[in-house]
Amino acid sequence: MLFNLQRYSTHDGPGIRSVVFLKGCSLGCRWCQNPESRSRLKDLLFDDRLCLAGCNLCSERCPHAITRIDDSTLKLQRALLTDADYDSLTGYCPTGALSVCGTAIDIDSVMAEVMRDKPYYLRTGGGLTLSGGEPFMQPEIAAELLKRGREAGIHTAVESCLHTPWSYIEPSLPWLDLMLADLKHVDDARFKEWTDGSAKRVMDNFRRLAAAGTQITIRVPLIPAFNADRTSIRGIVDFAADEVGVKEIHFLPYHTLGINKYNLLDAPYYASRTPLDDPELLAYAEDYASSKGLTAILRG
């Protein structure tokens, strides 16, 4: 399942890239900026700011799941929607207030779109990046896309949380040039509380990637009350330097640009509603990483 294909990206690996976003993730991070990517199934997004007063097209098409309450309000019962409903609603809303997130992936079509920009990749050292969600939740698709990219002579990368079985990751390694992997915490209890996952699984996968000789860039989202403190940063950097042996680490200060997506999904948001604003902490993170021999990059 695919939920986006973004061309001309410059933040998802070296050079100019096309980013293929795959649906499905095994984590439930409180601060997730792509909540529409969590489910491996289709999602229905509703933006009431775009809803046309008096329009009943969607409620007439799916009356069992969509009801018009008044001129500006729809009642959506997403659990009642079937695959056929999603298909019938795709592209149907004239204002885009109601949209379906997720399409069945066609590898040939995706690669045809990606390869439109091959001259830019070759000129800038860019290429194809898989993102999500968690790309390795669809291991066969991920491996095939990376294989096609490599065979086409372009650079390949994956953005991953590494919270999957190793057997999902390993098939992609022969075709992978760069792993951009999140290291959110090294404390298993804290990790579990904030993500519903296992830090041990992630750290074990980092060790296996290092043993396999994979080129890795570690990314650290700095989240208030979770890991945006000196103790957590030291633990993360120590693991990155001493056990994974990476050369580069990116610090990503927490922002709130994804909050509105929760409104579109009618889902609660459990993280801070205030971006991280702590220049002293960010300077400490960069300095400590540098002291451990890492190239530290701060990304906004």
TrEMBL record:
Its EC number is 1.97.1.-. PROSITE patterns: 4FE4S_FER_2, RADICAL_ACTIVATING, RADICAL_SAM. GO terms for molecular function: oxidoreductase activity. SUPFAM superfamilies: 4Fe-4S ferredoxins (SSF54862), Radical SAM enzymes (SSF102114). Keywords: 4Fe-4S, Iron, Iron-sulfur, Metal-binding, Oxidoreductase, S-adenosyl-L-methionine. Residues 11-292 form the Radical SAM core domain. Residues 42-72 form the 4Fe-4S ferredoxin-type domain. Its cofactor is [4Fe-4S] cluster. It is an enzyme of class 1 (oxidoreductase). Belongs to the organic radical-activating enzymes family. This is Glycyl-radical enzyme activating protein. It comes from Serratia aquatilis.
